[in-house]
Specification:
Blueprint lengths: L5 E7 L2 E10 L1 H12 L9 E11 L1 H10 L8 E4 L3 H4 L5 E3 L24
Parallel strand pairs: 2-3, 3-4, 4-5
Antiparallel strand pairs: 1-2
């Protein structure tokens, strides 16, 4: 993990908010997986991961996250911010408007969707 990566985690009711800062690499991905899986996720909450202060994403970090984040929790994990689509594994929501705006559960393949990843 690069020295500049940090996470700030806050719980609001049943929801978890994780603000990431710095460089997202393989060690950062493992730290995020640990944070999500360390008793926080229980299938009744949502997890919001903010990426607006991520300065760089290494492909290896995304691959680690995609390979190790349990598929059963992905529908409850929402990524937002400038680097959201570069980090979010398949099955997680990507919200371009910010973490609290809208409830669109985008897969990146929605027709006419502003967050369509194929375009």
């Amino acid at each position: 993990m690069e020295n500049n990566f940090t996470m700030d985690t806050q719980r609001q009711d049943k929801n978890i908010h994780i603000d990431m800062k710095g460089t997202f690499d393989g060690a950062s991905a493992f730290a995020l997986i640990h944070e999500i899986g360390d008793g926080i996720y229980d299938a009744t909450n949502n997890i919001y991961v903010e990426t607006k202060e991520i300065s760089k994403v290494y492909p290896f970090g995304k691959a680690i996250l995609d390979s190790n984040l349990p598929k059963k929790c992905r529908k409850c994990v929402h990524f937002s911010g400038a680097m959201a689509d570069r980090i979010a594994p398949e099955g997680c929501a990507v919200e371009n408007e910010g973490v609290h705006q809208g409830c669109h559960k985008c897969t990146g393949n929605c027709e006419n969707c502003p967050c369509n990843r194929s375009g």
